[in-house]
Design goal:
Structural class: mainly alpha
Radius of gyration: 18 Å
Strand order of the largest sheet: 1-2
Order of helices and strands: EEHHHHH
Number of helices: 5
Length: 122
């Protein structure tokens, strides 16, 4: 999916797939949409709407773009030819034992501190 340059225009902002559509192979689309909803609500609670929209995008864009990039990489790895598929199927059981789950924790252990005030941009 193409990158959306600006998520906000006047009194409207994009959220979820409208702002940051993740590949279905990432398994993260609904999760990052829910995270974005919580962050937007927190920003709207604490800041005037124009500042809230800017803060929301600044908070969310790095994380969602990282997830989208990872999904694109996963998609390109899934298009192996017959020889690549055979090699993948031979190597995958061993590779899965070597994966460090802590290396991928950033995707699944994301925490939003609801009680923390959304920061005003300077």
């Amino acid at each position: 999916m193409p990158r959306v340059a600006n998520w906000t225009h006047c009194r409207m902002t994009l959220i979820g797939d409208a702002a940051h559509a993740a590949s279905s192979s990432s398994g993260q689309g609904a999760s990052i949409a829910a995270e974005s909803a919580v962050e937007l609500a927190r920003c709207l609670r604490d800041l005037p709407y124009d500042q809230a929209f800017a803060a929301y995008e600044q908070l969310r864009r790095p994380r969602v773009e990282r997830i989208i990039k990872l999904g694109a990489r996963t998609n390109s790895n899934k298009t192996a030819g017959p020889v690549g598929r055979a090699l993948r199927d031979l190597v995958m059981p061993t590779a899965m034992k070597l994966i460090n789950p802590e290396k991928m924790a950033w995707q699944f252990d994301h925490h939003i501190d609801w009680d923390a005030k959304a920061a005003q941009l300077t």
